[in-house]
Amino acid sequence: MLKKLLISVTMLITATTFAETVTLDSCDNPQSWRFSNGAEFKGARGKISKDTESEKIALEYDFSKGGKYVSASPKAAIPYGTEKIILSLKSNTKCRAEYRIVDATGRTYHGKTRIMLNGKPKKCSFRVNGSWVGMWGGQKGLKQPKFPLKSFTLLIYGNKTKPGKVIIESCDVVCNAQQKITFDCENFNLNGSGWDICGTWKKSASGPMLELKAENTGTATQATLSIDFPNMGRNHVQNYYLDGSKKNFTFSYSPFAFQARNPNNAYQLLISIHSSNGDYSRKKIILAGDKSDNINFGSPVKSIDIEHSTIGTCTHFSYAAKDQGPFRSWHNYRPLLDMISNAGIKWIRDVVYAKKESDGKYHTNPYDLEWIKYARSKGINVIVLLWLRPKTPVEEAKKYFEAIVMETKDLVDVFEVGNEPENFGFKPMYGGKWNGYAGNGKLDRWVHEFLKYSNAVTDHIKKVRPEITTIGLGAAPSTNFHLLNLGVTKNLDGVTEHAYPFALTPEKMPWGWVMEERDGIKTGDKNCTFVGLINSYAEQFKKIGKMRSLWITEFGFPSYLFNGKNEKKIYMGYSETTQAIYILRRFLLSKTLPIIKVSCQYDFIDDYNSNPFNPEANFGQLRTDRSPKPAYYVIQRMNSLFNGYSYDPKLLIKTEKQPLHKGMVYSRLVKDWDSAKIKASNEVMAFGFASPNKPAQRMIAVWSTQPYNGEASSRCCSIRITEGAPYKEPPVAIDMITGRSFDIPARVDGNDLVFDQIILKNNPIVIKIIR
Q1: Residue 232, CB half-sphere, CA atoms under 13 Å: how many?
Q2: Strand runs (DSSP E) across 565-696, as ranges?
Q3: Reading across the β-sheet that carries 280-289, which strands appear in turn?
Q4: Per residue in 500-517, pLDDT tens?
Q5: Reduced to 3 states, what is the DSSP secondary structure of residue 576?
Q6: What does residue 633 show for φ and ψ, rounded to 5 degrees?
């Protein structure tokens, strides 16, 4: 992992034989401490403030209206092996100090030590294993606190008639340490709203501590300095308020006061300044544990550095040879192929054309050879679509395609024969229904004519180049099934499927048993699932006696807008965020189905100048102006995270609980799809992936199959990984949409690894489990 490292800070976490005194809190930021007025004894008043003279925090109290004590607790996490908490205290009047500790079980221990303060500075030592005057709650029978400690609290008992304050000048711990976790921390500067912010990392007992200095440049406004720390479900946000009438401020921020410490994680903190007039500035910094270099968090990987991948995208370079028309955005192919390469996409699928030259023979378009060669130089594999046109005699078509196949030797090994015959060429020429089923067990003529033409071309190109992979059909699933039953040539190695959900979620398809009467054949399963459709292809291959691979050469989700006139289109108009999430979910699901060799999203850049109201103009990962949509970065991150990984069926994962609030249960997706109702899915999916290059790591992809709408804050699930117990390092979860990583609790149950409470939002996550 590439990082700019300016300082390393050591954190102590486990007990052993040597002692060390380190700072727990710098005592200069009231927001780093919690105040209590001893609520069981009503009447006490007070607060934690900043003493103007010493610039340290002060615990103020007033018992004139009752109460018994007030208290202050540092928010910083107390290290394992802590023996003593040492405070330097100074009181402006006579008072008494006592303390409490709450341990890992929630048990409270009230210390016997009573320290009298009388206006002079005093160093006060509070033992963790002490003599206790009281113990209650938590695990009964425990005589001493159990680590990790949840809190330490200083209690002040003062004069009933005279208010006072105790200044806390320092807060240190004496602890034993065996293991030291080093966090690499990045110092930084941030300017905004008239403030110069300098962030410097320092060492403390609870881990790295960030010292923030805010300087008024003379034009400062009232502003808020925020630190956003990634957390499962809801991030922790710490705000510091900057008064524009003052010159400067100093704050201390301890990230592990609120968060577990994971040496495998590289936390992405977002530092921002925002003012009431709308000014906003932001900085991203990384807080990386000393084992995080072993973890890939999704840094981009180029296509040439990916050895094997099933991920592809559709391109239209061939249409743009003349730099005109609705596909002219594809003409300058180099920067587009560079972006495809930078996203780690391994496959592209496009048409290639040929022309009869003066020698009377067909030759491949030189422009097509150019972009193919450039793609191959970037490590990108090419699927060439051979577009069948029934008006061209088949013998002439053989010559035409032979030229392309032979002149792309050493460049292209996969050829797709035919494309959506129900839309292009065959049905328009011969007539009939889009699915080719005429009823009463009969098929339309166009289906038979397409099969003869496709078989003839496939046989010929396989004859001239036997080593190539031939794929084809590319009709609707039910038509593909009919074609397979009629007799597809054995020279066809794979079947192409255009798996568009149209208006459904990516786990669903408008194909299933409920469509049998319409199509004259049964496809998919009873619930119209994508997995069911793919599995039914495998069953169909087995039935006809030849197992073939399956190639998803088109699928996608358009991000067009509804305008009152286009609502009857077959495609849903998805938001760009939804498009990104749905493409990701479909790619992840496709990775779990070994029969699928390649899955190509349609398409890389919008066509038709990104016309906002045309579905066909909005399938791209990029808009026509080449500005990326969220989908581009999501696919880039996925390709990096899964580089070298494949589905691991041996990693047995069971979703044990997936409760839903009654307002979150979806009953159907579509009320009427050709007279069929398609039910919604409410399940959580979880699949395991492994890499031979990372034998000590596994990845678990987890997501909710519900429609994306953002209404609910989250849902919860628990999963059990059978025989997962050897993975005892703290796991790391990565939000695949934002790229931010966070910690996720896990426990060992016998030989199983259990995640009891995964809080899922709308975004799929990847959990990395480590030996």
Answers
A1: 20
A2: 596-601, 646-647, 653-657, 668-673, 676-679, 684-690
A3: 7-12, 180-185, 280-289, 266-275, 223-229, 236-242
A4: 999 999 999 999 999 999
A5: helix
A6: -70, -30
**75-90 average pLDDT score:** 88
Four-CA torsion 73, 77, 81, 85, nearest 10 degrees: -30
Integer Cα distance of 173 and 127 in angstroms: 10
pLDDT, tens only, 337-369:
999 999 999 999 999 999 999 999 999 999 999
CA distances 771 to 216, 590, 653, 727, 731, Å, are 49, 27, 17, 4, 9
Total residue length of the chain: 771
Is 70 exceeded by the pLDDT of residue 8? no
Structure tokens at 341: 């390469």
Q: Which residues of 372-391 are buried (b: 16+ CB within 10 A; e: fewer)?
A: bebbbebebbbbbbbbbebe
Order of all β-strands in the sheet with 195-204:
188-192, 195-204, 207-216, 248-253
Residue in the block written with tokens 């041996």: 650
**Residue 208, pLDDT above cutoff 50:** yes
Sign of the CA dihedral running 720, 723, 729, 733 = negative
Measured distance between the N- and C-terminal CA atoms of the chain, rounded to whole angstroms: 19
* 667 neighbors 679 (Cβ within 8 angstroms): yes
Measure Cα distances from 290 to 78, 81, 261, 440, 666 in Å: 20, 20, 11, 69, 44
Q: To which H or E segment does residue 364 belong?
A: strand 362-364
Does residue 84 register a pLDDT over 60? yes
pTM given for the model: 0.84
Please state whether the peptide bond connecting residue 366 to the residue before it is cis, i.e. omega within 30 degrees of 0.
no
- Strands (E) in 16-74, as ranges, are 19-25, 33-36, 45-50, 57-62, 70-74
559/631 Cα distance (integer angstroms): 11
Residue type, 335: P
Q: How far is CA 769 from the centre of its chain?
A: 16
H or E, element range at 195: strand 195-204
Whole-angstrom distance, CA of residue 368 vs CA of residue 350? 10
With CA atoms as reference, report the closest residue to 385 among 425, 326, 444, 443: 425
C-alpha neighbours within 13 Å on the C-beta side of residue 518: 18
**Residue 564, token pair as written in the block:** 């009152």
Q: What's the token pair of residue 180? A: 């030291």
